[in-house]
Amino acid sequence: EGAELLLLNAAVKEMWPEIASFIRTVLKESVESAIQARVPWFLGGLGFGRLSLGDAALQLEELSMERVDQVYCRDGNVRDFKLKGMVVWDADVDISVNAPNTVVEAEHVSVKGQLAVYLNQILPRPPFFTGLIFYFADPPAVSLSLRGQIFGLAVNLHWLERLLAGIIQSQLGDQLSLPNVKPILLDSINADAWFQVSGKVPEGVLTVRVLQARGLEVQDSGLPFGALRGRAVDAYCELALGAARWRTTTKAQTCDPQWAEEEDEEALAMDA
After folding, report:
1. CB atoms < 10 A from the CB of 50, how many?
2. pLDDT tens-digit profile of 185-208?
3. How many C-beta atoms surround the C-beta of residue 230 within 10 A?
4. Mean pLDDT throughout 238-263?
5. 37 Cβ contact partners less than 8 Å away, ≥ 6 residues apart
6. Where are the extended beta strands (E) located within the chain?
7. Ordered alpha helix ranges (H), 27-110
8. Is 23 helix (H, G, I), strand (E, B) or coil?
9. Cis before 257 (ω within 30)
């Protein structure tokens, strides 16, 4: 495993300029609009300025490999090859996020998540695999370190760090977390190849019902300048399975909310 990890990480480091260019494109084209839709009114028009991701490439850790048998209607059992490892990116960056009366800079970014790569249907001829599928079992954990000013004031930006990290995590989940996968077709000869690499077959359906919570602590709202500090709890519950997310209704002014009357939630259960 050590030799394989060294080889893969060396390849990622060599390709880092191209990978970083792709990440910058995604941030501008997808993440920026999501940020603008969710930030408070006083940050209207917030968008990326500088986008330097630094020289520290992402790393792969805890690599495992296994053979997986899949069943296709026409071909019966076929052999796949699965790689799974932890993707870790912990880097100093130079990213500016600007809006009228606001200048914020990101100095450090951390991303960590379990990535799986399927090499679909081993073939007896080049390219030897029908295609690739890669995905995260769950949206990767994201954290940011910010500094800056709003309306000329140096304020605590932990609330904005959590907001931006949550938006980036959500965007990653929508594109690359189960049941969402990213397929790459390799076998251009086989007319059915795209169907075979375009997704994963679910294991079943998971049904969840949120009943209640007890003894919730009163917390600050997280807004700047201490807004609504010490307000009683307006409680809700968020659940996530891969990219699927749910939120219960909000129960006002209670530390012991109950949701037993709400409907069950269902999601596809996938083999990560």
Report:
1. 12
2. 888 777 766 666 666 655 667 788
3. 9
4. 83
5. none
6. 47-52, 59-72, 76-99, 102-122, 129-136, 141-150, 153-154, 182-185, 204-208, 238-241, 244-247, 265-269
7. 32-38
8. helix
9. no
Task: Find all residues with CB under 8 Å of 207, minimum gap 6, and list them.
Answer: 264, 265, 266
Query: Which residue carries 């709400």 as its tokens?
Result: 262
User: Residue 152: left (phi > 0), alpha (psi -120 to 50), or beta?
Assistant: left
3-state secondary structure of 5: helix
Facing residues of 110 across strands?
A: 90, 143
Residue 108 or 196, more confident: 108
Residue 125 CB contacts under 8 Å (≥ 6 apart), including other chains:
none
C-beta of residue 213 within 8 angstroms of C-beta of residue 257: yes
Query: What does the chain come to in residues?
Result: 272
Task: Record the pTM.
Answer: 0.73
Alpha-carbon span 243 to 83, nearest angstrom? 20
